[in-house]
Structure formats: C-alpha cells, structure tokens
Amino acid sequence: MGPFGGIMIECGTNQPIEKVLAVEDAGKHYRELGRIEDEKANRNIFEARNKHITNTVTIDLHGQHVQHAMNLLKIHMMICICIPSVLLRVITGCGSEGTGKGKIKRSVIELAEKEHIEWREENSGTVALRLGGPREYRFLEHESDSDQVGNFNID
Fold first, then answer.
1. DSSP-based three-state secondary structure for 53
2. Can you give the pLDDT at residue 63?
3. CATH architecture, range 55-150
4. String of b and e for 74-97 (b: at least 16 CB within 10 Å)?
5. Around Cβ 35, how many Cβ atoms within 10 Å?
6. Are the C-beta atoms of residues 120 and 127 closer than 8 Å to each other?
7. What Gene3D superfamilies does the database record attribute to this sequence (predicted)?
C-alpha cells in the first residue's frame, strides 16, 4: 500500500490518488481562508474593545528655553504621527511669575492653533494636544524650522 493508501482506506474510497490529493489541497486552502478570517475577526474585536483607549505621552518642557522647548515638542509631534490616537500632554510651567501665562505655554498654544490641532488647558501649567494619527505639519515646510528640528541635538 502506498503512502496515501491509509487516507484512501480511511475515506472509504477507491478514488485515484489525484482525487485524494485534490481534496487534501482543497482542505488546506479552506483552512488557510478560515485562519485569515479568524485573524480579521480578532482584529475587529480588539479595535472595538480598545477604540476608547487613548495613548498618552507626557513631556515636561518647563524650565527650558523657548526655542529648545519648541524643538522638543516638534520632535515628539513627529514621533506621534505613527500612533493612531494620542494625547500629548505638555507640561509648560506657569511662567516666571506663576500667572499661567508663560512664554513656552503661549508658544505651544500658538503652534497647536497654527497646525489646527485640538488642544485644551488641563491646568495652569499643562496643555493637552490631541494628535489624530498620520498628518503633515506645516512647521516642516518652513526651511528655518525644519533645519532647527533636523539639527536638534539631544545631548
């Protein structure tokens, strides 16, 4: 009895080996289709259960010079482009007088408005930016800004 004789006997058939192999190939094909559909269903379930979850990234810019702080913010904004839904919490501090009107905070808000980014003030020293996935930032179009961001040294 050949290598497929057991399969043929088990199936209770005297069909030619080509027919048995065709049925076996069809079974493999449909098993693969089932696996693909199962992965899709699992992904859909995951997305439905987790769509309300927002990734939160916090950066602390208070105490930095304004230009240095803005470069750090722009780098974080570019990194967050790859994340579908992120809340970028920016700690700006309240300014040297403690009035909540510091230079960094004003610069962060101006950048958010220029880039049409939804923002809110969480408290007098924190601004939250809602970044919504892939986008192009206008600050990359300005050569002087992009050079400053591109040549930023993290030392």
1. coil
2. 87
3. 2-Layer Sandwich (3.30)
4. bebbeebeeeeebbbebbbbbbee
5. 10
6. yes
7. 3.30.1370.110
User: 87: which 2 tokens?
Assistant: 């809340």
Where are any strands of DSSP class E within the chain? Answer: 55-60, 86-91, 118-123, 126-131
Tens-digit pLDDT profile for residues 126-140: 999 998 766 777 787
Query: Rounded distance, CA 47 to CA 23, Å?
Result: 36
Q: pLDDT for 30-87, tens place per residue?
A: 999 999 999 999 988 888 887 777 788 899 998 899 999 999 999 998 888 877 778 9
Tokens of 72: 């750090």
Q: In the structure encoding, which two tokens stand for residue 127, read together?
A: 């601004």
